[in-house]
Amino acid sequence: MRKNIVLLEILFSVVIIVIMFSIITLICLQIRLELQIINKNSEASLIASNILENMNTRSFENIKKYVDEFSGIGVSKKIEDKLQNIIIFGDEFTEKFFGTEIPNGYTVDFTVQNNLEFDILSDVDISVNYKIGNNDKSVHISTAFEREKITGCNNPILMDDYFTELGITSLNYSITPIKYSKNMNSFVATTKDDQEWYNYSAKKWAKVLVLPNDGDLKKLFIDEHDRISNHVNINGENLNVEDYIYVWIPNFSIKDGVSCFRYGTGKRAIRMSFLYSEGKYLYVNRVSEEVKDISDKCTFDGIYGVWRKLYNEEDEYYKEFNKTRFAPIILH
User: How far apart are CA 51 and CA 71, in angstroms?
Assistant: First the structure.
């Protein structure tokens, strides 16, 4: 009898051990599965975010060209009207998609669709798909890319960096954007956001009035209605407002006798172009070919433009810009 009890106790212990081992095994398998899900999901998220990050470094035109020309082994591509769908199979694809490797076991489903006329705005959907066992999983990101709005020339910059070579700083001088008002028959103070501040196609250059902070010169030139006097008299000396005006000369150059503005701080020209869609045309500015510097003294290296004193023909930038189709300046 005692022997049977001992055997039962041993059997019971073995059963308990087997059950505990099974539970521990199941827990370990579940933990392993959860870790696998986390790792794969993290990898999929990284793939999607890397693709998006690479796209963010590119222009609208570059993204469009890249998608249009993209192909390779392990790539399926479908084009329907204004939609392009690209599927990349990581098991076969050995290159990079937007600078991103697609590992084995992952599939990227990339869709770009133009949602406005003239190919101005595109919706982008990125799905990174993978399997966990027999279950399909995915990470999805949606965004939109808009064609850059390129102005006819680089906008004027009022930062100190663009005045220091002239010995002008905001601590010592007031820098006020000005324009001519026909209604008031004089220059008036304005703001950098004023759409009427300048128009280079009409030879109206961006102008600022630079006056020293010390003394009463600013109060004498600019009244309480922002009207600017053409002349003021201080201690019997007649001062002309034009002696305190500086003008913005955007990055430009001349090629084959034709003057053009250049984009940003680079050498590529801004050209008027047009987009066509369903019988309609839209004229836009686009970045075009490179145009070399006019000379070693007129390069715009690393800068968007320069401020120069009005009528300063001794300055290389001013002198050369006065030869372009945007000159001579029309003050009013």
Answer: 16
Instruction: For residues 185 and 183, give the distance between their C-alpha atoms in angstroms, rounded to a whole number.
Output: 6
pLDDT digits (tens, 9 = 90+) for 200-251: 999 999 999 999 998 788 889 999 889 999 999 888 889 999 999 999 999 9
| CA dist 186 → 210, 218, 240, 289 (Å) | 17, 16, 13, 41
List, as own/partner pairs, every contact residues 28-37 make where C-beta atoms lie below 8 angstroms and the sequence separation is at least 24, other chains included.
33/132, 33/133, 36/132, 37/132, 37/137
- Between CA 273 and CA 65 the distance in angstroms is 17
Structure tokens at 88: 């990349």
pLDDT one-digit tens code per residue, 60-75: 888 989 999 999 999 9
Structure tokens of 59?
Answer: 């222009």
| Entry pTM | 0.69
Q: Cα separation of 27 and 60, whole Å?
A: 50
Question: CA-based Rg of the chain, rounded to a whole angstrom?
Answer: 34
